[in-house]
Design a protein that fits this description.
Strands 1-2-3 form a 3-stranded parallel β-sheet, sandwiched between helices. Helices cover 47% and strands 8% of the residues. α3 packs across α5 (105-112) and α7 packs across α8 (150-166). β1 (29-33), α2 and β2 (55-60) form a beta-alpha-beta unit. The radius of gyration is 21 Å and the shape is elongated. It is mainly alpha-helical and 199 residues long. Keywords: DNA-binding, Phosphoprotein, Transcription, Transcription regulation. The modification 4-aspartylphosphate is found at residue 33. This is Response regulatory domain-containing protein. Residues 1-97 form the Response regulatory domain. InterPro entries: CheY-like_superfamily (IPR011006), Sig_transdc_resp-reg_C-effctor (IPR016032), Sig_transdc_resp-reg_receiver (IPR001789), Tscrpt_reg_LuxR_C (IPR000792), WalR-like (IPR039420), WH-like_DNA-bd_sf (IPR036388).
């Protein structure tokens, strides 16, 4: 918290309640254990804390790679292993409190352990829409080819863009969507420097 205060609490709802009673003070960083055992999900815990305005630093053991990936995807600013000396933990907290993002081995390992971490998890129909639209078809023709309403195709496109934002790879233009489709293997490699960036 502001002023260097430290407080220990057993579960995320308890922390969130505490943060709501600070009367104008702000807690910069919450160090979150991924092994709370209270029946809540990692995503739920990280997002609950972020909603209070505090950053989240994950405190985890090395073998919880899936949970670490989930916490990073939910918006955690970094990971610090439970085996780290207290001096490293304090430095990590200071980095996150200052608005920085940790770029340490644990984070890199969590991402590299799953090649799908940074991929938008698109459903089959969303992939179909992206394939046709990023290939150059206007959205009306995409809808016609897939036998769906134009408004439905638009909803799919909005969902696709939202999913790319969630994984930190925004695609606001048609050219951006083309790049994402190529990067994720939905389309073969193309020259993405040209093309129509309009929707």
């Amino acid at each position: 918290m502001r002023g260097g205060g430290v407080s220990r609490h057993r579960d995320t709802p308890d922390v969130v309640r505490l943060l709501g009673t600070l009367d104008g003070q702000r807690c910069d960083v919450v160090v979150l254990d991924l092994s709370l055992g209270d029946g809540t999900s990692v995503t739920e815990n990280v997002r609950s804390v972020l909603a209070t305005g505090s950053a989240v630093l994950v405190h985890s053991i090395a073998d919880r790679v899936a949970a670490v990936r989930e916490s990073l995807a939910a918006g955690a600013a970094g990971v610090i292993p439970k085996s780290s000396p207290m001096s490293d933990v304090i430095r990590a907290i200071a980095t996150v409190a200052g608005g920085g993002v940790l770029n340490n081995v644990e984070w890199a390992s969590a991402i590299e352990a799953d090649s799908d971490f940074a991929r938008a998890q698109l459903g089959r129909r969303e992939r179909d829409v992206l394939h046709l639209y990023a290939s150059g078809l206007p959205l009306k023709l995409v809808a016609s080819q897939l036998g769906i309403a134009h408004s439905t195709a638009r909803e799919y496109l909005d969902r696709i863009r939202a999913k790319y934002v969630e994984v930190g790879r925004p695609a606001p233009t048609k050219v951006d969507l083309l790049r994402r489709a190529v990067e994720d293997g939905i389309l073969p490699g193309l020259d993405t420097e040209g093309g129509d960036a309009r929707r």
